Amino acid sequence: MNIIEIIFIGVGLASDACSVSICKGLCMNKLSIYKMIVISLWFSIFQFIMPLIGYYFGNYIGSNIKVYSHIICFILLVLLGINMIRESNSIENDITDSISIKEMFILSIVTSIDALSVGITFSLLSLNIFISCLIIFIVTFILSCIGIKVGYKFGSKYKSKAQIIGGLILVIIGIKFII
Question: Are 140 and 44 in contact (CB under 8 A)?
Answer without folding.
Answer: yes
